[in-house]
Design goal:
By secondary structure, this protein is α/β, with parallel strands linked by helices. The protein has 2 domains: 199 residues, Rossmann fold (3-Layer(aba) Sandwich), CATH 3.40.50.2000; 154 residues, 3-Layer(aba) Sandwich (Rossmann fold). Helix content is 40%, strand content 15%. It has 16 helices and 13 strands.
Length: 361
């Protein structure tokens, strides 16, 4: 069985790229087609893969201005020659699902979400804080991309999604049904911590929409220690509002993140994500999660067992959740077993089985 892998772009490492790592482990000889790729930011596993980029790799200053080339990605993803492959596996939060395949090819798309910026445009523009010129230029581009997104949604023969939230979004935006398979969590690189832990912890890109400001405001008011791992455009404003108990550690290695999670009292997860891998990584350390009760957290956090959910994104609600978490006798072994249900091994076994079954039809 000849397999090809297609991914939106490989210029960052996040949850979607961890899925591509799994695909590469399952089919190590399969080429990975992607619009642009920056090997300096890839994981060691992907750096050695057969990565095949589009003509966009030759565009000027693409590393810095890759967002400015927004209208070109559909052309790039459709330019790949995928003839001769029995199965195409795509990892898509925007473009990859639209790869053109011959009629006889089985195309299985692992969909992280339909394009957020075309289906939730107002919220996207608000959270990215674009200037007036960009706001004026974007609407016609977004309208054209929405039409393209709908038109190409029928290209995959099978859709697999990462959460119930995305499953409903796919149904609403594309009118298609899908199979749910939660993404892989590398529970193997985490170990259960001893004792009750030190400070509470945030591990996140510091973007405005992640609502780290809520955690900073709450722990400043409570006078409790909070460590924040991560960097991003919101860091300066967060530092300006932070009290003396808030510590910003910036970017930290994977080993450093694992150590911080082992030592924390609980992970604070104040934003809304389609799935959210970080809470399960904290659970793999036997630590509870205090999360806003929306999006993927509603699927992965077992209230009172692996964490606490709060209903409103306010300092009052988060403070109440923190106090409630302090009153619970958490069982680290139970929390760890919960995280193991989302392991890389479980994902890869289930996805391989699905692909083999789908390709026989």
């Amino acid at each position: 069985m000849r397999v090809a892998i297609v991914h939106d772009y490989l210029n960052q490492m996040g949850g979607a790229e961890r899925v591509v790592e799994s695909f590469h482990r399952l089919w190590p000889d399969a080429p990975i087609f992607t619009t642009i790729a920056d090997r300096s930011v890839m994981s060691a596993a992907l750096r050695g893969a057969d990565v095949r980029v589009s003509w966009m790799q030759r565009l000027p200053a693409w590393r810095r201005h890759f967002r400015a080339y927004l209208p070109l990605y559909p052309l790039a993803i459709e330019s790949f020659d995928l003839r001769g492959y029995d199965v195409v596996v795509s990892s898509s939060s925007a473009w990859a699902k639209a790869a053109r395949t011959p009629p006889e090819t089985t195309h299985i798309c692992y969909c992280h979400t339909p394009m957020r910026w075309v289906w939730d445009y107002e919220r996207y523009v608000a959270r990215e804080r674009f200037g007036p010129v960009t706001r004026l230029a974007l609407p016609p581009v977004i309208a054209a991309l929405r039409q393209w997104d709908v038109r190409t949604a029928s290209r995959p023969t099978h859709l697999v999604v990462n959460s119930q939230v995305v499953q409903e979004r796919v149904r609403r935006c594309w009118g298609r049904e899908s199979v749910l398979l939660h993404p892989p969590v590398d529970t193997g690189r985490f170990a259960v911590g001893a004792g009750e832990g030190r400070a509470h912890l945030v591990v996140s890109r510091l973007a405005h929409y992640k609502r780290i400001d809520l955690a900073v405001a709450t722990f400043t008011q409570l006078g409790l220690p909070l460590e924040i791992i991560g960097d991003g455009p919101a860091r300066r404003s967060l530092e300006e509002m932070a009290g003396p108990t808030i510590i910003f550690r910036g970017r930290v290695s994977d080993a450093g993140v694992a150590e911080a999670m082992r030592d924390c009292r609980a992970l604070i997860f104040p934003g809304e994500e389609d799935f959210g891998i970080t809470p399960l990584e904290a659970n793999a350390c036997g630590r509870p999660v205090i999360a806003f009760g929306a999006g993927g957290a509603r699927e992965t956090v077992r209230a009172g067992v692996t964490g606490v959910l709060f209903a409103e994104q306010t300092a009052t609600a988060l403070a109440a959740a923190v106090r409630h978490a302090e009153s619970v006798a958490w069982d680290a072994a139970v929390i760890r077993r919960h995280a193991e249900q989302y392991s890389v091994e479980r994902f890869e076994s289930s996805f391989r089985e699905f692909v083999e079954r789908a390709s026989r039809r």
